[in-house]
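Memo to structure team: turn this sequence into structure tokens by end of day. - J.P.
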Amino acid sequence: MYKLLRQLLFLLPPEEAHQVSMFFLKVACSTAASRQLIRRWLDPGVQQPLKMGSLLFKNRVGLAAGFDKNALHLRELSCLGFGHVEIGTVTPQPQRGNERPRLFRLPQDKALINRMGFNNDGVVTIARRLKEWREHGQKKADTQPPLIIGGNIGKNKVTPNEEAWRDYEFCFERLYPWVDYFVVNVSSPNTPGLRALQEKDSLQKILTLLQQRNREKSIQRPLFLKIAPDLSPAQVDDVIALALEIKLDGLVVSNTTISREGLLTDENQVSRMGAGGLSGVPLREKNTSLLQYITARTQGAIPLIASGGIFTAADAQEKMAAGATLLQVWTGFIYEGPAIAKNICSSQ
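Reply from structure team:
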């Protein structure tokens, strides 16, 4: 059924297809009775709740940042069986992102290229929506255990790198009451100069500050770092050393790649799509290799969330064998459909 629906959606430009899909999902989830039916169909249920740090996840499969940037669809996504949903990337000030078109499909490769550019409504508006969800929407959603919400935070495009720490701190403070964990995003290829913040000195300043702010709270939120799959071994070693030094709660492995190697899609067609991060099946092997490297170097001391090339239960097993505790899907959701969480969990 979803294959036919996907064919129809793929007739639309990608961003418009996303908006149409979420509109109809919102309509489908508009009543308590319809939500209950959708859960019976798509939610794998609480089979083996998973504890990671202080958080209890009803299953391993979550939705990566970038799908519900503005926390507009938590009720609908909670019906689809995800153990967690990561909102964002959120920046201090609203920004429109890059000019359209900025999202492209590569169906032959089961991949996407995006250069969205942190388009979002800004942390003040998004925090207000999350507050409403926590105080009213979550109770109506009636998910048990409650859906875990992650806050993926970044800097505004106009903020110089030397002032980036202010943006991350501002987002942390505004979202702290309403999210369950944080992910620091310094690895998107779509904000000019952002990946330079992955260098050890810049990264240490941002993460040390956030850890300090976190420890000042009565309850500490788990703090993760999302890294690029294109780092050199020396850069990965620096990230590992820093994560261990400041006791990060884990790493999200990984963001999209700037590589275009091994694609089946015509090279000229890919070239016309232009710059952006590649996600989906072509990222799978690179992502798994990075997970394996970090696991081996740390002997499993750093919890890992796998994000990249997860479409099936076999892909999920591969990531877990490489050292991942939790899984995140995004491009796989687009190609496999709303039953992806159930299909993965039911085969474990």
